[in-house]
Amino acid sequence: MNDLTGFQRDLLYVIAGGEEPHGLALKEELEEYYESEVHHGRLYPNLDTLVEKGLVDKGQLDQRTNYYSLTRRGRRELEARREWEDQYVDF
Known about the structure:
By secondary structure, this protein is mainly alpha-helical. The relative contact order is 0.18. It is globular. It has helices at residues 6-17, 23-34, 40-52, 72-88, and strands at 56-60, 66-70. The chain has a two-stranded antiparallel ribbon.
């Protein structure tokens, strides 16, 4: 998890919060958060990186649409990150 970019970590959180979201849904969520456009050339290579690292599974809804879900490893990594953050942020 410590070798991921902030954008990749944000992708993990958005994927975790959805029910197998597809790329366009992820793009829209991130654009709302960042308040700027997220280009396909940024989104999909980063999703592919998360798949290659074993943090995200990629499935196919139809011939044009893929969905994404966290792997067990991805969930463990997010949980560990949240525990680490909780050491420093106590609201």
